[in-house]
Design a protein that fits this description.
Shape: globular
Number of helices: 2
Helix content: 10-25%
Order of helices and strands: HEHEEEE
Length: about 100
């Protein structure tokens, strides 16, 4: 999404997301470059930003976690897990 989590980069990404009118639901999580995650939600208005949160979209239970994931917070009963890093082998029971 960004190289250094600068507001200019986030605004450009948000503008690009806004141009993707053929995509109905855009869900984003922070990666290791977005260490200032408090900047994301105010700037990224053309998507849903998940930070250790669960939502339901089109009947699907989706959980998004950042690059500094706390795997113990991931709830059961998910359809989709969005994470910046691969899940541990112990996570298989959750999904």
């Amino acid at each position: 999404m960004t190289q250094r989590c600068k507001k200019k980069e986030l605004k450009a990404f948000n503008n690009w997301l806004g141009e993707q009118t053929h995509i109905r639901h855009k869900i984003v999580i922070a990666g290791n470059h977005e260490k200032q995650s408090e900047l994301l939600k105010p700037i990224l208005t053309n998507c849903i930003v998940l930070e250790d949160e669960r939502i339901k979209v089109l009947g699907l239970h989706i959980y998004g976690t950042t690059w500094k994931a706390d795997w113990s917070k991931i709830p059961e009963g998910l359809h989709i897990l969005l994470a910046h890093s691969p899940p541990s082998k112990d996570l298989a029971f959750v999904i």
